Amino acid sequence: MSFNELNSRAPVLRAAAAILMAAVVAGCALAGRGGPAPATFDLSSPEEFADLKGSTSAQILIREPSALKALDSERIVVKPTAASVEYYAGAQWSDRLPKLLQTRIAEAFENSRRVRAVGRPGEGLLIDYQIVTDIRAFQIEAAGADEAVVTISAKILNERNGRVVAARLFSARVPVSASSADAAVAGLDAAFDGVLAELVSWTLSRI
Question: CA–CA separation, 138 vs 97, rounded Å?
């Protein structure tokens, strides 16, 4: 091939190279996209409390709950058997579960309108009591009858002397259809709502 022929084909070769590079970049972008974004779910806190008695002038700190690694994430847990842990594909909580529960616990106390002040670490409150919680279960149990199960251990800690005023285990179960993430979240939200209502009522009765 002569120099003149090669020179005349240069624009065509450059165009072909540009098209090939664009195709490679587009392919990389699609590969990194990883499919559709997961559906994101939130939890609510009760706004109405039946038979709530008492009130307190204390200021309460809500610490972030502790949890095992399987529950300490944005993923929604389903347990096909008592010994196995899986997660709903394409679904997630709006934040790490302990962080989300901390926020909703604080909201529940605020919604009761029976506490002088409630806050989280770093908000500058002069604290009288801490609510210390541990997430024992927050999952769909699909072995046998499908149920949303929420179990939370709670302690009331006197901030002034470090003593535990009271401790209790709260648990609720709600029947669900384990095949649907929407139904699972609705069941977990209902179970958590019941636990929160009991937690607020119990705390007010102890301080």
Answer: 9
User: What's the token pair of residue 181?
Assistant: 């993430």
Reply yes or no on whether the pLDDT at 26 is more than 50: no
CA–CA separation, 71 and 136 (whole Å): 9
Residue 16 belongs to domain spanning = 1-35
> What is the rounded CA–CA span in Å between residue 60 and residue 115?
8
The CATH code of the domain that includes 192 is 3.40.50.10610
Residue 30, pLDDT > 80, answer no
What's this model's pTM, rounded to 2 decimal places? 0.81
Q: Do residues 191 and 148 touch, judged by C-beta distance below 8 A?
A: yes
The answer on 15 and 112 residing in a single domain is no
Residues 6+ apart with CB under 8 A from 98: 64, 65, 66, 67, 71, 72, 135
Tell how strand 86-93 and strand 115-119 pair up: unpaired
